[in-house]
Write a structure and sequence with these properties.
By secondary structure, the chain is of the alpha+beta class. It is built from 3 helices and 11 strands; from the N terminus they run ααββββββββαβββ. A hairpin with a 2-residue loop joins strand 4 and strand 5.
Length: 194
């Protein structure tokens, strides 16, 4: 009888844990919530730092806080007509992860996709850093991109600006988005549906 009650209590506890959003430290929660408050809105951006300029980014840049729930944010990043990139910020229970979902126009996954990193500390309410995780390092090596194994991605969220930044030795890329002027929401990114 006691075993039955213990099993019932354990099953209830596991169910409650599975159905709740992972718990993070206050700075992770505040950072996540500061982005989530823009859910459903899109914003124009511009490259503000790029020490290896690419003509690909000489076009309209848009980020769209498209999907939000208590544990995940999906933020497509449009580069002109290219809708291949979606940033995914997720609560993990031990911090926050950032993944880059890259798709082809037909919706299939790019060979270099779902790379990113995980917070290693509390960060700040306005800034979180995501050093490349083991999966990403292995992916970069296997895809012939070993220079990327030291990538760290950073996201800044301030009242007027959202910033995406990539840094590694010899490389810095930064895009700032103006949160004061929402624009019309674009269509779903490649591989997603409206």
């Amino acid at each position: 009888m006691l075993k039955t009650y213990a099993a019932i209590i354990l099953a209830s506890l596991c169910s409650a844990i599975a159905n709740s959003a992972p718990v993070s430290v206050a700075s992770h929660e505040n950072f996540f919530n500061s982005i989530a408050q823009h859910c459903g809105k899109a914003f124009n951006g511009k490259v503000t730092v790029d020490n290896q300029p690419s003509a690909a980014f000489d076009t309209d840049l848009v980020m769209y806080v498209r999907r939000c729930n208590s544990s995940e944010l999906q933020i497509p990043f449009y580069v002109g007509d290219n809708a291949s990139r979606t940033w995914i910020i997720k609560k993990t229970g031990s911090g926050l992860s950032l993944k880059h979902d890259h798709r082809h126009k037909d919706g299939t996954s790019d060979p270099v996709t779902m790379y990113g990193g995980h917070t290693l500390d509390a960060g700040f309410n306005q800034v979180q850093s995501f050093p490349a995780d083991h999966y990403s390092k292995a992916l970069f090596v296997n895809q012939g991109l070993p220079q990327s194994i030291t990538n760290t991605w950073q996201i800044f969220i301030y009242p007027n600006t959202f910033t995406y930044r990539l840094v590694r030795e010899g490389r810095e890329f930064r895009v700032d988005f103006d949160l004061t002027q929402a624009i019309a929401a674009p269509k779903a990114p490649w591989g997603y549906t409206d």
